[in-house]
Description:
Oligomer: single chain
Low-confidence stretches: none
Distance between the termini: 13 Å
Number of strands: 8
Strand content: 35-45%
Radius of gyration: 13 Å
Number of domains: 1
Mean pLDDT: 96
Amino acid sequence: MKVLAEIEMSDGGKGYVFFCPGCRYYHHYQVVPGSDASKPIWTWNGDMEKPTFTPSLLVNGSTEKRCHSFVTNGQIQYLGDCWHELKNTTVDLKEIDW
């Protein structure tokens, strides 16, 4: 079961998206740098079924729709500063249809 989809970033880098059930939309990690050296790069274990990315992912950090999580061994660990009802929980990544 594939829980990630590979994407090409607008700056030529490479990334992966997953579906966030808390926000109910897709989030992405950039793992290969492109031409924009200011974009953050995450490490990835290379597993499309049970991925681990480090460090944490902060989406919409300066808004009330903040989503902050770790993806480890195919699970999303939501941190307490998330806006949605899944904060402080851990859930399995869902199969992606991309």
